[in-house]
């Protein structure tokens, strides 16, 4: 069975994507910081009959990243790496004039440095697997200027650039940066508490990610709403 590593997989989009891949027969290595929630998610995902390894930890910890890749190797390799774990930098979001520099560093460490570190750790397995791919979770804040989203958006813009360069340097892989669009997630609720506007559930955008895996378009940046509409 193909094996995927998914970070930030205990809830939201990470969990929904894990459920969808398990339903297709993928074995999974799942990461999140909250051990009990991750354990419950892993048990639910495993009901699809696939093997699921759940490792609680912080992706900024090199030892944790090595453990994730080692778990994938034990399952048979790694065909897909999904860098979904994200940090906002401040909760709730604040204007750049008030953004704590430690928060900015945390966003960069989680969203950029740890993502690259996990890619580096997993590359030998990805290179050895057929039709392998890396997915990095982007945001419209990486490309548009929204007040209070500067720190988070800057980190995601940096991640987009890393994904673009990785796609050039590893032509045998597919490297997709995906902007999922607005979603009703805990991350958004922490970013903008009190904003109770209607937003799609994370599961509604999963078909966009499955389309990428099925069609394997060139490496690049994609928007989930366009993929759902049949466009790229």
From TrEMBL:
Keywords on record: Oxidoreductase
Pfam families xrefs: adh_short
Transmembrane segment boundaries: none
Gene3D superfamilies xref list: NAD(P)-binding Rossmann-like Domain
Domain of life: Bacteria
InterPro entries membership: NAD(P)-bd_dom_sf, Sc_DH/Rdtase_CS, SDR_fam
Similarity field: Belongs to the short-chain dehydrogenases/reductases (SDR) family.
Annotated protein name in UniProt: SDR family oxidoreductase
Taxonomic source organism: Streptomyces phaeoluteigriseus
């Amino acid at each position: 069975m193909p094996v995927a590593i998914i970070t930030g997989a205990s809830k939201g989009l990470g969990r929904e994507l894990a459920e969808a891949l398990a339903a297709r027969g993928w074995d999974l290595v799942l990461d999140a910081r909250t051990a009990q929630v991750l354990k419950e998610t892993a048990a639910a995902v495993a009901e699809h009959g696939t093997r699921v390894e759940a490792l609680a930890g912080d992706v900024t910890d090199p030892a944790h990243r090595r453990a994730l890749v080692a778990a994938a190797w034990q399952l048979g390799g790694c065909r897909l790496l999904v860098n979904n774990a994200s940090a906002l930098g401040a909760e709730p979001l604040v204007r750049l004039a008030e953004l704590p520099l430690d928060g900015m560093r945390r966003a960069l460490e989680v969203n950029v440095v740890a993502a690259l570190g996990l890619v580096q750790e997993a590359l030998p397995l990805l290179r050895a697997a057929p039709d392998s791919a890396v997915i990095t979770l982007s945001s419209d804040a990486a490309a548009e200027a929204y007040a209070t989203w500067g720190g988070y958006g800057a980190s995601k813009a940096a991640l987009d650039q890393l994904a673009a360069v990785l796609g050039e340097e590893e032509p045998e892989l597919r490297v997709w940066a995906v902007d999922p669009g607005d979603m009703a997630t805990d991350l958004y609720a922490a970013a903008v508490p009190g904003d109770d506007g209607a937003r799609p559930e994370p599961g509604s955008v999963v078909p966009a990610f499955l389309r990428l895996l099925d069609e394997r378009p060139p490496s690049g940046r994609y928007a989930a709403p366009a993929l759902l509409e049949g466009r790229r």
